[in-house]
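Entry under discussion copied across for reference:
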Amino acid sequence: MNAILKRRQLAPATTEIFLPASKSISNRLLIMKFLSNGRIKIENLSKAGDTQLMQHLLHKISQHISDGFQQETLALDCDNAGTVFRFLTALLSIQPGFWLLTGSERMKKRPVAALCDALNQLGAAIEYCGKVGFPPLKIQGRKLHGGKVSLDASESSQYVSAMLMIAPILAGGLSLTLEGKSVSRPYIDMTLALMEEAGIKTNEKGNVIVVEHGKYQQTDFAVEPDWSSASYWYEMAALMPGSEILLRGLSLKSLQGDAELANIFSLLGVASYETGRGVMVKKIEDSERFAEIREPLRFDLSRHPDLAPALAATCAALNVEATLIGLGNLKIKESNRLEALHDELRKINSTVSIVGDDVLFISKQDIFNESREFFFRTYNDHRMAMALAPLVLCCHQVTIENPDVVAKSYPHFWDDVKLFLER
């Protein structure tokens, strides 16, 4: 089944959007809640598919342990949820029992060697069931010692977060040395901030993070709206001058690193205003900042890779020359997003090139015919589906393959798009 979106003549208006709760925060809090034996309370937990899967699998693990079946192997299917797989790899390594952690065919192509190597340095018993360095994994949970360990942080920040969250449980705590250039660093900062709010003591010096042995304390958390999901509405605003979009409950002062979105899109003429009800987003064509769009733009997204699909699609649609760097880990996301963006944006007559392993270059081209219709593949990737949908504002019709994939992070996305297009 496909989603068919048709362009309408829209008068400028204000649309209120209720974004989903942050799945990044929610998933971390669920792990911390498990490790705290339920002392952590969570309000506004994300309804995203990844978070619901995490909650379901944690319940199965808890039930398996409480029923006394530690001598029987429990198989846990993480589908294509990278966060779930990586966080559970670390968690299960310290849970007594025998575990088989698997996932979809795409998950079996997403590397986990750096995380497994670090855990095994601490005494974990993790074996590969298939290709070395990739899922599925056979894990024998046991008590791990703490101490010093090194971890390659150049591939995924989730490896680091997974290690950090179990660190207080380890005897003696953990001294974690990050090797290589850390990607998605704000997600590591998010993990540390949540842990500290729950009573865990951490400190950092250079590329070394030290987590003291301790217990997660009783803490109440309220999950923020998701800034990554806001990127598609910044894209909508950029492609629909004059319209105002109020992102309810969002704040420019956020725990989430993707709040940098406001600064990034300001270079495309999109202004962000903090209000008492959320963040108002609007494109102002005659602003001084908008003039910068006439110059070649360069964005380093190594700290914010999830913003790449919306930003790339926006630049292509606006016929803006832009270079997006720091995209190396897009190759190991739900799809190879670097190739996916290249292939799909070329359909709208955009000149897109992949340079090396981590650069996407978008050059100026003859603007695509607004009367055309386009069919976009999603590669079973939620962010590809949502980033390509706003292009309907620049053409007659777009058809999005496999629209249900958005449930992974933003289950009501299509309802919100319909609200925006039919207002």
